[in-house]
Amino acid sequence: MAMNGYEKAAIFLSSVGEETAAQILKGMDPEAIGKVTSYMARLKKGDRARVESVFQETLEKVTSGDIQLGGEEYVKNILTKGLGNESAEKILEMVSKESPLESLKWVNPKILSSFLVTEHPQTIALILCLLEAEQSAAVIEALPEHVRSDVAMRVATTERIPDSALEEIEEVLKGQLDIGKANTSKSFQGTKVIAEILNHCDRSTEQKILGNIEGRDVKMADSIRELMLVFDDLEKIDDRGTQMILKEVTTEDLTLALKTAPDTFKQKIFKNMSQRAAQILKEEMETRGPVKVTDVEKAQQNIVKIARKLDEEGKIAIAGRGKEEFV
Fold first, then answer.
1. Where are the beta strands (DSSP E) in 86-143?
2. According to the model, what pLDDT value does residue 96 have?
3. Crossing angle for the helix pair 190-199 and 218-227, nearest 10 degrees?
4. What is the distance between the alpha carbons of residues 150 and 208, in angstroms, rounded to a whole number?
5. Mean pLDDT of the 112-141 span
6. Residue range 48-54: mean pLDDT, rounded
7. What element of type H or E holds 137?
8. What single-letter DSSP state applies at residue 314?
9. Any residues with CB less than 8 A from the CB of 299 and at least 6 apart, and which?
């Protein structure tokens, strides 16, 4: 019996692995997802001949050029087939009007910092507010040390980027990176933005910037610290949260990270592991020789990233952060 398109798609997705299949399904409309997954649920292990048939057909189409791998014309064709010419044109027009924020995320942080260094610190600060925290951290780390703190302070005091400032930023980006235009103002909580940026910086950069900010405004530095998550904060997490973090942490990172941790923190970690796992970790820590401070800090930062992700997902609660109280 001949297979329809949904059945072929089901066989193909069932054969490429869960992660790849999930990414493909994300781009499909709900009705198609329902039909494809329905066929996927009915597949049996003995369908090897049909699997080979689907992949053979796919290979033949790729080889003959019937399947195009991306490109503007390809996108236009599939949109037109699915939505009609008018709707496809509208979507392509929207995609072409990419905002500076969306365009900047594809730019290498070192390239960004190399041209930003010649701009006014206020311009740099506003652009950093438009980036993801991790990318901003990489940019600020690459800036000269005498510029970092000034920029960080300006980020921390940013509450809103008005239209006029956005237009100036657009001119900077247009001249340097040929990036398009935006037309709406943006609001920010500057202290939160710089706290997230510093969370992604290495410990040395973080401490120097906070120290310089503290020299100019103690209250501002304290506000930023309250919003930051550092390795020492993990000791405040309850046992259940600690166990969730440990499930995602590698033994290598844990061994390195605990090198400089207080005994109370180490005991908390051991308590939330199985006896066997705790014993292995202790032996690993005892037999490991001297390690670089930078390696310890990197391992701690890796664990902090895991904790931050779980915190953002609402899976754990970190007591003492910000002004929230836990009872």
1. none
2. 55
3. 60
4. 12
5. 84
6. 73
7. helix 133-142
8. T
9. 252, 253, 254, 255, 256, 257
**3-state SS class at 194:** helix
Average of pLDDT values for 141-145?
Answer: 88
- Specify whether the CB–CB gap between 106 and 79 falls below 8 A: no
In whole angstroms, what is the distance from residue 114 CA to residue 139 CA?
9
Residue 219: pLDDT above 60?
Answer: yes
Tokens of 86: 């008018």
Question: How far is 90 from 205, CA to CA, in rounded Å?
Answer: 45
Could you give the dihedral angle defined by the CA atoms of residues 66, 69, 70 and 76, in that order, rounded to the nearest 10 degrees?
Answer: 10
Torsion angle, alpha carbons of 136, 142, 144, 148, to 10: 20
Domains of the chain: 1-65 (no CATH), 69-96 (no CATH), 102-227 (1.10.220.30), 231-312 (1.10.220.30)
3-state secondary structure of 228: coil
Q: Note if the pTM is more than 0.70.
A: no
Q: How far apart are the first and last CA of the chain?
A: 64
pLDDT tens-digit readout, 149-173: 999 999 998 888 777 777 767 666 6
Closest by CA to 303, choosing from 238, 251, 260, is 251
